[in-house]
């Protein structure tokens, strides 16, 4: 499994050559620069089927990581049409969402399993 | 077993065996895993052509899928087809096991990678007997602003007693989508079948379709149908661009996603 942890060390400006029988042709990937790596990683928490915080600011024009932790006793899904993400967050677990670079603006997100209460906005600037 | 090991194993499995081309008009996305959700899906297509041998083909599927792990989406599909031409019956032809393995976390690299594998077991015999098939290949996607570009490159082999060829067939699919508004976004799609890899016909003899598609998603709570789940749809018209392709093909997709 190419986990997020394994990839962490490859996230800087390096070339990664993926080989394997699955891909008959070798695929060469240019890993992107992680210009936001040195900044604190923003974190969202599912709590009482709401996002804490429900408004989060991130840098525009760079790639960044977003941590999403689920403190509730049931699973939920971090979802955003504008960010093209739909990722399950099991109860008690934390996932990493790789995003950007984003144009300055507001990007709504929600918890798909509690759409009425779990809502938030990511602000890129 | 890791996701790369599983993808490699499935790819090797297909290469070991001994294709008839079969067009499936929907893109495989590396983003849709649907872990924690049940997916009920229908795909359909209907070809239109004044030439008797090209018009009248249609295809309908019923599928049930879910995410088995955070990186593995799997579906079981029943496929019903009608061949082109007059006096052709509509038959339940196959049961298919489809798998999309997400090889990289979305957004981590310049491109997002997946590996697709499906096995199709023929359900017909006698006059309409058909081979079993395995299809596999890479899925690549790229987000650029509010647009998403997805490419599929698939290879198909036939198996079984009704195998008609030992050749490997190559097909490809492309979609560029502009995420304008969740209930309705425009896209352009391309579907091509280049034929057998070892004896590829001239482009005029290949299948090539392109056209616009409308894509949307509606949450159940917006439709007054409860607080969970959603319906996704796709509706498009593909123009045949070669003499070997029907003049026009309508394609549609309807998908219900329900958390469990």
Question: What is the compact description of this entry?
Answer:
The complex is a heterodimer of chains A (125) and B (260). With 125 residues, chain A is mainly β.
Can you walk me through this structure?
The complex is a heterodimer of chains A (125) and B (260). Chain A has one helix and eleven strands. Chain A has one helix at 4-8; strands spanning 15-18, 27-30, 43-47, 50-52, 55-58, 64-70, 76-80, 85-89, 94-99, 105-111, 119-124. The longest helix of chain A has 5 residues, at 4-8. Chain A has a single domain, classed as Immunoglobulin-like, CATH 2.60.40. Chain B is mostly beta strands and 260 residues long. In chain B, 5% of the residues lie in helices and 55% in strands. Chain B has one helix at 3-16; strands spanning 37-48, 58-69, 72-82, 90-102, 112-122, 132-144, 147-159, 169-178, 185-196, 207-219, 230-240, 248-259. The relative contact order of chain B is 0.18.
List keywords for this structure.
heterodimer; A: 125 residues; mainly beta; Immunoglobulin-like; 5-stranded mixed sheet; 4-stranded mixed sheet; disordered N terminus; B: mainly beta; Porin; 12-stranded antiparallel beta barrel; globular
Summarize the helix and strand pattern of chain B as letters: HEEEEEEEEEEEE
What do we call the CATH topology of chain A? Answer: Immunoglobulin-like
What gap, in angstroms, lies between the N and C termini of chain A? 34 Å
Give the chain pair forming the largest contact, with residue counts.
Answer: A-B, 39 and 46 residues
Average pLDDT metric of chain B: 90
Strand content of chain B: over 45%
State the helix count of chain B.
1
Q: Could you give me the name of the CATH homologous superfamily of chain B? A: monomeric porin ompg
- Give me the number of helical elements of chain A: 1
